[in-house]
Specification:
Length: 427
């Protein structure tokens, strides 16, 4: 198959790739979006059945399109989110080619651009945008060896309780995924152990405003980097059941046994760190600090928002916190499954360029990589705290597209008398 030529190739047809396409089109940059499956495929096939977005529909969207047939304060289901991105791609006329797998990207020798090898042939491109996001390879810590008597599954492979064999379940991870999966399994009648580590625990809503609103008016979405030591701290927040504040005490009251961080495994015995009380206390402190900031904001601005003193009432610590379980014989406890809600790592094995550090993480500033002509999209904290959200990816894509447009104008400059090398941004 003969090579094709195009100015820019965007790899990935999720929220980052679709946002990138919109801004490239505004700059009239010829491009193609290559997606190995369907648009927003991970929302459809790599999330559990009952998953909903963690932010309300008025907030978790692109500026140019609202969710249809969904209350603005409701939380979109995973299928509604995937359909939204497909509808958005159609609305902007995004040049998406589905079913195309990118296998290799290498810089051309002695001439500009890159050679993009795909399952449908070769594409020559001046610019490449890796918009595959952060959820590329599930991470399961190498703690428990595989065996016939214990099912181990990552949260990306979990669909519903019926998928797991009969018996109790250990869920490892206290972020949004771990908490929601543990609660769903508990509601199905399972005995559930939830391994809790360091986490932030914001209120779902406070004084008649969702936490995404509070983070907005308090300027927290604009934070450029996580606090030192909190780079990998998860956020325990849920849009399930219409949205509610995650409270580990409530989960314990409902029958879930809380344990500390999963530490080691030997001879059928799982051992947990003695940090459960500290993790719960740190999450409480994070929660109460946001309430303090919200109250101060209300007073400072003279807002008429209803007081909510009950939000500060924390229940008594459950027995699993005051007398923590430090080891568990899985067989004796009837545990037949472990769900690892332990996150993901990136996988850029197809991108053979000098744009990564010694740990394989992208070297970049706001998505502009250390390899000229290569860009990243959809990374956590790409430019700010909000980068992981749908709207955050849209704004990050605008910055990257502006950079590409400016670089194109430099490449087109032919010397004195030729057009200015600085384009009109957004035109």
């Amino acid at each position: 198959m003969p090579s094709q030529e195009i100015e820019a190739v965007v790899v990935g047809g999720g929220q980052a790739g679709i946002a990138m396409s919109e801004h490239l089109s505004e700059h009239r940059v010829p491009h193609v979006v290559l997606e190995r499956h369907r648009i927003a495929e991970r929302w459809r096939s790599e999330r559990w059945d009952s998953l909903v977005a963690n932010g309300p529909a008025w907030h978790d969207r692109f500026p140019g399109l609202e969710f249809t047939d969904l209350d603005p304060d409701a939380f979109a289901s995973k299928e509604q989110v995937a359909d939204y991105f497909a509808a958005y791609a159609e609305k902007i006329g995004a040049p998406v080619r589905c079913g195309v797998d990118v296998t290799s990207v290498r810089r051309n020798a002695g001439r500009p651009g890159f050679r993009v090898e795909t399952s449908e042939g070769t594409i020559e491109a001046r610019y490449v945008v890796a918009a595959t996001g952060p959820f590329q390879r599930p991470v399961i810590p190498p703690i428990v060896p595989d065996g016939p008597d214990l099912t181990q599954i990552h949260s990306s492979g979990y669909r519903n309780p019926a998928q797991l064999p009969d018996g109790a379940v250990l869920v490892v991870g206290s972020g949004s995924s771990g908490v929601q999966i543990a609660d769903e399994l508990r509601a199905s009648g399972r005995k559930v152990y939830l391994s809790v580590g360091p986490h932030d625990r914001p209120p779902r809503s406070y004084r008649d405003r969702d936490f995404v609103w509070w983070l907005g008016v308090l300027g927290k979405w604009e934070a450029s980097a996580p606090p030192r030591g909190a780079e990998h701290v998860t956020i325990a927040v849920s849009g399930a059941h219409g949205g509610h504040t995650v409270d580990f005490r409530t989960l314990a009251d409902h029958g879930i046994t809380l344990v500390g961080r999963t530490d080691s495994y030997d001879g059928g015995m799982m051992r947990f760190a003695s940090d459960l009380r500290d993790s719960i206390a740190a999450g409480d402190a994070n929660y109460l600090a946001l309430l303090d900031e919200a109250d101060a904001y209300v007073e400072r601005n003279g807002l008429d928002l209803p007081e909510e003193p009950g939000a500060r009432v924390l229940g008594a610590d459950p027995r699993s916190v005051t007398d923590p379980l430090l080891e568990l014989d899985l067989a004796s406890a009837g545990v037949t499954s472990i769900v690892w809600a332990t996150g993901f790592t990136v996988d850029y094995g197809w991108l053979h360029v000098d744009a990564f550090d010694g740990n394989g993480r992208p070297r970049h500033h706001r998505g502009v990589s250390s390899e000229p002509g290569v860009y990243f999209m959809g990374l956590p904290w790409q430019s700010r705290r909000g980068s992981s959200f749908i709207w955050g990816a849209w704004h990050d894509a605008r910055y990257v597209a502006d950079h590409i447009a400016i670089q194109r104008s430099y490449a087109e400059y032919k010397g004195p008398g030729s057009p200015t090398p600085f384009p009109s941004i957004g035109k």
